[in-house]
Amino acid sequence: MDKDEQLLRRRLYDLANNAYYKGICVFSDFLNLHEQNILECMKHELPGIPYFSYGGFLEAERRMICFSGDDNVKKTEDIEFPISVISIKPQNRKFSDALTHRDYLGAVLNLGIDRSIVGDIIINDIEAYIFCTRSISEFIADNLIKIKHTNISASIINKQDFHYEPKFKDISGTVSSIRLDSILSVAFNKSRSSLTGLIKGGKVFVNGKEVISNSYELKDNDLVSVRGHGKFLYVGTPYKTKKGRYSVKVKLYA
């Protein structure tokens, strides 16, 4: 257990205890999948209160945790998470750069903002939506005026006005087995050996759970996330080829 994990565990433990003894809802910062997995592993060490996760929209990967000591809170929908969504648009579409997730995140962090208070960043063509803690949203909206060479407009919108329909790239290939490393090789067009380190390094998550075994076998409709590379939906194996290999299909999030 490294220092960062020790600090995270202590912070989560303190938040849960605060909620338990005060009978209130207490919120964490945004947790990535690895941090959410740590929380899941330590749940038996926490006080006997429920906790809920939410990232601003249903499919969010980075999520805020609500530890609830309030007996009236029964489900996620009962909670008003302190999350805001900021709409980012270029001031002039004609002269806008082709901005990436890294560009948007870098611009926000360059404002002196810690990564833990920024959630998912969703890109839709040349527009984007940034989820963040409510307390920092006005600062971002007021100070984020340029990303790379593109002058932008940033404004806080109602979460109800955010509509997300993920875009996919259909990928297919053949593998000798339904091992995790084989499917990753198809999804990201890389050799199995180059992906082994990602799996053993704790960077691969299946349905939000960390998987460190190369030979883990995926099931139809498993959602696989790889830190730093992206995520995909494993559609399944429609048939076997005449040579005995499995034909597999995945939907890579664009």
How would you summarize the topology of this molecule?
Layout: H1 3-22, E1 25-31, H2 33-41, E2 51-54, E3 63-68, E4 83-90, H3 101-109, E5 118-124, E6 127-133, H4 134-143, E7 146-147, E8 150-157, E9 168-175, H5 180-188, H6 192-200, E10 204-206, E11 209-210, E12 222-226, E13 230-240, E14 246-253
Antiparallel strand pairs: 1-3, 2-3, 4-6, 4-8, 5-6, 7-8, 9-14, 10-11, 10-12, 12-13, 13-14
The gist of it:
With about 250 residues, this protein is of the alpha+beta class. The protein has helices at about 5-20, 35-40, 100-110, 135-145, 180-190, 190-200, and strands at about 25-30, 50-55, 65-70, 85-90, 120-125, 125-135, 145, 150-155, 170-175, 205, 210, 220-225, 230-240, 245-254. The protein has 3 domains: about 5-75, Ribosomal Protein S8, Chain: A, domain 1; about 85-160, Alpha-Beta Plaits, CATH 3.30.70; about 170-254, Structural Genomics Hypothetical 15.5 Kd Protein In mrcA-pckA Intergenic Region, Chain A.
Structure, described:
The chain is of the alpha+beta class. It folds into three domains: 3-77, Ribosomal Protein S8, Chain: A, domain 1, CATH 3.30.1370.160; 83-161, RRM (RNA recognition motif) domain (Alpha-Beta Plaits), CATH 3.30.70; 168-253, Structural Genomics Hypothetical 15.5 Kd Protein In mrcA-pckA Intergenic Region, Chain A. Helix content is 26%, strand content 34%. It is built from six helices and 14 strands. The chain has helices at 3-22, 33-41, 101-109, 134-143, 180-188, 192-200; strands at 25-31, 51-54, 63-68, 83-90, 118-124, 127-133, 146-147, 150-157, 168-175, 204-206, 209-210, 222-226, 230-240, 246-253. It has a six-stranded antiparallel beta sheet, with helices on both faces. It has a five-stranded antiparallel beta sheet with strand order 5-6-4-8-7. Strands 1-3-2 form a three-stranded antiparallel beta sheet. A hairpin with a 3-residue loop joins strand 12 and strand 13 (230-240). Helix 5 packs across helix 6 (192-200). The protein is globular. The two termini are 34 Å apart. The mean pLDDT is 93.
